[in-house]
Amino acid sequence: MANCGLCSKKLTIFNTGLGGKLENGEKLCIACYNKMSKKNSSQQTNEINKIEYLFELKGWNGQLYVTENYIAIERKGAISFITQGGIKGRKEIPISSITAIQIKKAGALAGYIQFSVIGGIEDKGGLFDAAMDENSISFYEENNHLANEIKNFLQDKISKNGEKHVVNNISSADEILKFKQLLDTGIISAEEFEAKKKQLLGL
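The chain above was modelled as a monomer; its predicted structure follows.
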């Protein structure tokens, strides 16, 4: 095998993991890859640290941050590197895009919180698959309460967003019904009714 492109340490299957590379193609050991990742993300981290989070959950395969409008899943460190196939960085998901939240409490084994998103395909095979899923965080028993709080907060936000859509649809339907009654009584023309209907339906 080759040597690390930075520290010149002999590369083995034990210290290359899924492998990082320099721009010139030279391979890196895990230690040098982590150092490079930290340097490259320091500016991003400084910006991120200015954000106030409602919840922060540190899992063993990443961190979960919750704001009023989105969640952020951040991957860094060796375990994240291994479980996520070398994916590092930060993924932000608008709360309005979350369709479901699954939680498995930690006990003898780690637990996880997993987010289903519009158009997403989440893994459904339990803890091992959840650890590999890009939209989930695995955690230990001391974080059971926090994970449950996060789930309750997000489900409340999702249901309130759903209620707003239902209220808007009902009021649009009520308005169309009123205009239909005006059409039936001859107060407005068919053209005026159709124009108002298209406006209310957003067509």
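The mean pLDDT is 75.
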